[in-house]
User: Which sequence fits this backbone?
């Protein structure tokens, strides 16, 4: 199985990457999901989406077992955010055509996104970038991919929806090739700054966020 790596993340956390090279039959044989996982898989009919689903489930199970825990399956809460059954730990997953990625942490909420660096991002950039972010991105696809994956990772971390990528999740300007960037979740109730890790994976951008590190709170009205 093409597990690419499992890396430490923010203390006790882990990030894992899987390259999806198996055919559907191989993934089906390796899949050992819970009843909820099996039901979720049965609702997917496109073969490529089935491969991505199975690879991501096998990966989260592999990661969890690597830290000595038992995988009991995944369910979704009232906001449609996935959570691990029978544990207080947190996770987030994402997949593209070629890769599946997962972040796990025993205590901190986390968010993760992986996205190909492609022209598709330039088509929708105005919808998710503020004017300052738009100017900084300067039509450069790698910068757009960092902005998109960072905002998506923070959106997943927050987990309650009702956030605008443009208005509620600003990302601070960053240097090209930066591996550590900073972003915010701003709502009427709070304003929180987060550090995010940026990992370049061939033609994809992978960005990971955790609530545990380098954050501070301020009254939103004062920001």
Assistant:
């Amino acid at each position: 199985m093409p597990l690419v790596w499992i890396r430490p993340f923010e203390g006790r956390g882990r990030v894992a990457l899987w390259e999806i090279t198996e055919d559907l039959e191989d993934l089906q044989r390796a899949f050992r999901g819970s009843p909820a996982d099996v039901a979720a898989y049965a609702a997917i009919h496109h073969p490529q989406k089935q491969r991505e689903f199975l690879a991501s489930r096998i990966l989260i199970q592999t990661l969890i077992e690597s830290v000595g825990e038992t995988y009991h399956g995944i369910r979704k809460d009232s906001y449609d955010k996935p959570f691990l059954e029978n544990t207080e730990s947190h996770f987030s997953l994402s997949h593209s055509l070629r890769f599946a990625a997962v972040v796990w942490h025993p205590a901190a909420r986390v968010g993760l996104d992986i996205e190909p660096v492609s022209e598709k991002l330039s088509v929708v950039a105005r919808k998710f970038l503020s004017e300052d972010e738009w100017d900084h991105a300067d039509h450069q696809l790698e910068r757009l991919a960092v902005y998109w994956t960072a905002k998506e990772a923070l959106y997943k971390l927050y987990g309650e929806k009702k956030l605008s990528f443009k208005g509620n999740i600003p990302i601070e300007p960053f240097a090209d090739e930066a591996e550590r960037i900073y972003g915010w979740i701003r709502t009427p109730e709070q304003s929180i700054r987060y550090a995010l890790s940026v990992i370049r994976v061939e033609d994809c951008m992978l960005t990971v966020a955790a609530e545990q590190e380098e954050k501070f709170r301020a009254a939103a009205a004062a920001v």
About this structure: Residues 47-66 form the longest helix (20 residues). The helical segments are 24-30, 35-42, 47-66, 120-128, 131-137, 141-158, 165-168. The chain has a mean pLDDT of 93.
